[in-house]
Design brief:
The complex is a heterodimer of chains A (about 120) and B (about 260). With about 120 residues, chain A is α+β, with helices and mostly antiparallel strands. Chain A is about 30% helix and about 20% strand. The chains are: A alpha+beta (about 120), B alpha/beta (about 260). The interface between A and B is medium-sized, with 31 and 28 residues. Chain A: It holds the Pfam family Trm112p.
Chain lengths: ~120, ~260
């Protein structure tokens, strides 16, 4: 699971009001290099919740993202490279996503989060 | 496959992974991929950023879409979900075998994504469980979830449509597999009320079933609450597809 996906995922347990962002428990993080596409990054920059993204990247052991970001930073190659790396090249391979409200853990196995709810959570 | 010589590569059956609890690619999967191939020029010019499959099963369809549209270098990213954990695992293997990848999530339809992914999906492909079955077979564990569609095969389709509407971007397209028993014209009318135009991209009849692959897109001129127009729109789109249908009829005798 990439941080792009983490930024789009919320806990949807019945009764949970603020299910975003899920806290990351990282057991194994892998890096997979992919080609950069600036247009894609610029488009996603508008959609990403930056604070959740930075916190998630730190939980994955990556500390190169600034606390705050604005669109003018996209002109910097260094920023773009780091944004690309954190968004698309870091993968949570093993670990869990934790609901911020209930503490319920959603396991991540072989890079795949399991968001299925138990009967009493639907 | 000789007739597909000039077409882009799609997923190869010998590279598609399998599991006893996962639906294998069959007529419906092939019809959906043929629809994507038939529409490939439009898809490429559409420049989607995020593509999504709900109910990815073996991974045959999302792999084919990734081969048609390219990956990160082309600025395209893929998300695929399935309620069956085995299916998501098999999809991962199928994609890896073809050298492509998607973000995979085990979830019911798009639960967990509806809030933050809203309005971001440019292309959605869905081959839903469309077989009419008793209602209590819907969503049970394992391979049954891949086909059991409840009354008229509509139970899951009717849950997916509002989710698709929520997730699709302004320019978003949805490709949906339906069976005649699902009453596709009524599905089109329902979507018209939400502001979507529709057309049949591929129609295919086998001994057992008659399939329609319908494409939906947001249309500013499509006004809801006009049932007459909905019906003529559906039939009109049928008529405009006749040339395409006769083309496809000639090329698909080798499936299943």
């Amino acid at each position: 699971m990439r941080l792009l996906t983490h930024n789009m995922l919320s806990s949807n347990i019945k009764g949970v009001v603020n299910g975003f962002p899920l806290r990351i428990e990282a057991e194994k993080v892998v890096e997979k290099t992919v080609e950069m596409n600036g247009d894609f990054l610029k488009k996603m920059f508008e959609k990403v919740d930056w604070k959740a993204f930075v916190d998630a990247s730190r939980a994955m052991g990556y500390n190169e993202l600034p606390e705050e970001a604005d669109p003018s930073m996209l002109d910097s190659d260094e920023f773009l490279n780091n944004f690309h790396h954190a968004l698309l090249e870091l993968h949570l391979e093993e670990g869990a996503l934790v609901c911020p409200e209930t503490g319920r853990r959603f396991p991540v196995t072989k890079g795949i989060p399991n968001m299925l709810l138990h009967e009493d959570e639907v | 496959m000789a007739s597909h010589k000039q077409l882009p590569r799609t997923a190869q059956i010998r590279l598609v992974s399998s599991h006893q609890e996962v639906y294998e690619p069959c007529d419906d999967s092939f019809a959906l991929v043929d629809a994507l191939l038939a529409d490939r020029n439009n898809l490429q010019e559409h420049h989607p950023s995020l593509c999504m499959e709900i109910g990815c099963g073996s991974g045959y369809v999302i792999t084919s879409l990734a081969l048609i549209l390219g990956q990160e270098a082309s600025g395209v990213n893929y998300i695929a979900t399935d309620i069956n954990p085995h299916a998501v695992e098999v999809t991962r293997e199928t994609m890896e075998a073809h050298g492509v990848g998607a973000e995979l999530i085990v979830t019911d339809i798009a639960a967990g994504l509806e809030q933050r992914l809203a309005g971001l999906v440019d292309v959605m492909v869905v081959n839903p469980p469309y077989v009419p079955t008793p209602e209590d077979e819907v969503g049970v564990e394992g391979i049954t979830s891949s086909w059991a569609g409840g009354e008229n095969g509509r139970s899951v389709i009717d849950k997916i449509l509002p989710v698709a509407d929520r997730l699709l971007s302004e320019k978003g397209w949805l490709y949906l597999v339906t069976l005649t028993a699902n009453n596709p014209s009524e599905i089109c009318q329902q979507m018209r009320k939400k502001g979507y135009a529709s057309k049949i991209v591929v129609q295919r009849s086998t001994e057992e079933e008659s399939l329609h692959i319908i494409k939906f897109w947001r249309d500013v001129d499509t006004v809801g609450d006009e049932p007459d127009q909905s019906v003529s729109g559906f039939i009109g789109s049928l008529l405009t597809q006749i040339r395409l249908l006769s083309y496809w009829r000639g090329t698909n005798s080798d499936k299943c």
